[in-house]
Amino acid sequence: MKFCSIASGSSGNCIYAGSADSSILIDTGISGKKIEAGLNAIDRTTKEIDGILVTHEHSDHIKGLGVLARRYGMPIYATPGTIAAMREMTALGRIPDELYRPIHADEKFSVGDLTILPFEISHDAAEPVGYRIEHNGKCAAVATDMGCYDEYIIGNLKNLDVLLIESNHDVRMLQAGRYPYYLKRRILGEKGHLSNESCGQLLGQVLHENIREIFLGHLSQENNYEALAYETVTSEVTLGDNPFRSEDFHIQIAHRECVSEPVFI
Q1: 210 φ/ψ sector (left φ>0, alpha ψ -120 to 50, else beta)
Q2: pTM exceeding 0.90
Q3: What is residue 106's DSSP assignment?
Q4: H/E run at residue 233
């Protein structure tokens, strides 16, 4: 299975996962042109995509969805709540009803030879989910836009080969920054976003010896920067109550604008 971040950040998110025979996108929060360029960079094309998995209906996750779905007739997999919310969004344009494929948290489904398990996340959206993608005994997961985590989330992020996890903000930068109070409260709340510290603490509970790659994703453009996210997360892992040190793993940033090196598992 090949896994790659095409874009990840507060301004837009799009992740690729695929086998030799099946390909999916997790979210399409950037333009169709940028998605095509990102796929071309890893020797794929938009025409090869077998389906789009939507985590939730916020614009940084679905900005390019309407154009791609209409142009290529791509199936859209999302929870009923997310589908209902997207149908109300005029910015997406009219998407044919037959392209929507309702899925449910904790119920596996398949796209070609990929097996996918959605799991609930805590975010201020209609019915948001993260995803585990499995193929031939290997597993990758995308878990962003979480205000908090619990044993259920931890369970869904164990035994992975690749993980893209949210490291959205630095708490001090957010508190001192120019965002209005209500927005700061939202981001820091249980249905907001994971801070760098929380990301590192969560990682400490799901790491294992055989995990191949960890991506720190969905970094805030206003309240974080790459070096700070990396240093904070790796410090939390190394100093946390777990048997590992951060240098035991390959941890990288999923960049906002550029495509990551694909990981093969």
Answers
A1: alpha
A2: yes
A3: T
A4: helix 226-239
